[in-house]
Structure formats: C-alpha cells, structure tokens
Task: structure prediction
Amino acid sequence: MATVAKTVRRARRVARIFREAHGRTGSVGVASFDTVRHIVSVPFIGRVVDPTIAWAAFALSRFEPGPTIIAHERGEAGPERLGARVAVFCHFDRQGRIRDHTRHYLDALRAEGLDLVFVSNSCPLASADLAWIRGSAARLVFRHNRGYDFAAWRDAMAVCDLPAADTRFLLIANDSVYGPVAPLGPVLDRIDFTQADVWSATDSWQHGFHLQSYFVAFGPAALHHAAFARFWRSVGNVRSKWWAVRRYELGLSRALTSAGLRCKALWPYTEMIAATPASAGGEASGSPAVTPGDMPLNPTADLWQVLIEHGCPFLKRELLRKNPSRVAGVSGWSSTVGRMNALVRDLILRDLEPPSRIARIK
Result:
C-alpha cells in the first residue's frame, strides 16, 4: 500500500507540473519547454523518459522563431582580423554576471596570446561586467540561451568567420570549470598537432569514448576538414541537456574520428584510472576501467583529485556546488587547490558563498 501511495503522489506531482507549466504562458511551445525542464526534475520520470523528452525538445526547436544572435561587436582593443590562435569562450550566468573566477580564466587565456571570442548566453550583462569584457575580448557575441554551449560556439564561429584560412589553433572552452589552478602555458605547450588533430583536457568512456567539451583544441587538419564544418552545421538550438551531451559532446568525437581525425586527451582516462590508489577505486581494486562490461567513471567528478595532482588545472564547478553523483571526499578540495593556488581557492570560496538577501532582492 505504501508503494501504491507513493506512485499516486508522483503521478499527481507530474500532473501538477503540466498544469502549472501551461498555466504560466500562453505559448504552447514555450510551455512545452518549461514542462520539459520541470518534469526531468522528478527523478523516476527523468530516468525513464530523458531520451523521449530530448527528441520532443529537438522537434520543438525546429519551429522556434527568430534568430539566436542578439548582437555582436569588436572589443575595444580587438584586432581588425583575428589571429592564428583563437579561444571561443561560452559564458552563462543567471544574473548576467561575469564572476571573478571566470575573469581569472579569461585573463589566463589572454595571457597566452589567444585572441578571445566571448559568447554569452546571458543577455543583458550587468553594466560593470559588460564594460570589463569589452576591454578584454577581441570579439563579443550576445545571444538567446538556446542550444547550450554547442549552439553558442557554432554562432560565435559563424559571426567571426572561424576558422579562417590562417587559423592554426582554435580552442572552445566554457565557464563550467574553476581554474586554472596552474599556468596555462605548459598545458598549451603539450598540445602537439603532429600527435593528434584534436586535443581535450580530459576524455570519458561513459556512453563510448569522447573528448569532454569544456576544453577542446582543434589543429589545422581538423579545422579545415569537411567533417568539422559538417558537424557544426548539424548543431541545433535544442533545449535539452541530454541531447546536447549525447548528440553533440559525444557526437563531435564520433564525427571527427569517423573522418579519420585523431582525438586525444592531455589527461587520458586510462592513465588517471591507473594512477588512482586502490583504496580510492583504482584498477587494483577492480573498479571500473574501459574494458567490456565495466562501468566507466566520470573523470572530472570521480577522479577530480587525481587530475589536479597530475597537473590538470581545472575543477568542475558543478562538482563543488551540487556534487550530483555524490562523490566522496569532495570536501577536501580546498586544501588540495589551496596548496597549488591560494588565489583560485579564494575565488572558488567566493563563488560558493550563498547570495545575500539584498542581492536576491535586486
């Protein structure tokens, strides 16, 4: 009887979500997107119908009117033509802020001589943040929040005519990470396009091998390959994170490797698993690796400490803010990061502070 009662309560909750979503807006399309976002918050529903909801979101995206780009401009110190080395950085913040830890990351990219293309899914930006980024980026692109990071990268590259004939290095990155906790120079120096055509910071074997998209660098062979252009043309403005991950993050690696391009990670999953102590779930303890029948881990969550200790300069923001997969030992991040970079530790602590009541009212 208790199980039946629990199921009935869940069914009533789903029905209420449908009613509330459609009651808040007069547009069936917008209500449908709103319904999608709320329904996946019901755990048992999300596990069962994520793929179906993703397909529904994809179908609805085909009918969503209007362009995604709101405005674009050249930065105050931006060159007339972008150079051969470019970073396209995707930003999103619900309050329209460029947080201090994100500014630190952007400054680090610029310090390595990369022309910065800043594309924001948050519009409008706060006035002080807008003034700061105009003085920092070579190009700025502002767009509606449709299609997650992949659609933002697609739009920014299209607006800036990237890759150009002389583009030799193109990095896509986003604000989903804290860092860098160490200088980016040695990281970028390790990217050797004679050994691979595409490099990421980390790779994953969940749902098949793929480069994790928060930091991916493309070399000349990839940039000027038909498969690269074909993939970005396929990216849609789908409001489904499941779709963005399965179709675009996984799809990018599959499309490029299928075309014969070589994809590698600076901190490969297999090496990080091998470096994991047995007590923490390494191969010696029989934990998941990349052999048939095993269940691979998420390296940026489950192997965060091993990655940091082996020189990876990034730490996932979601891991510290929400820890959705309940990774053990995350509370030790402060001492681990603090030993390497006290400034970044303090920036993270500032970001993790709950907003004040005054800030919430504003």
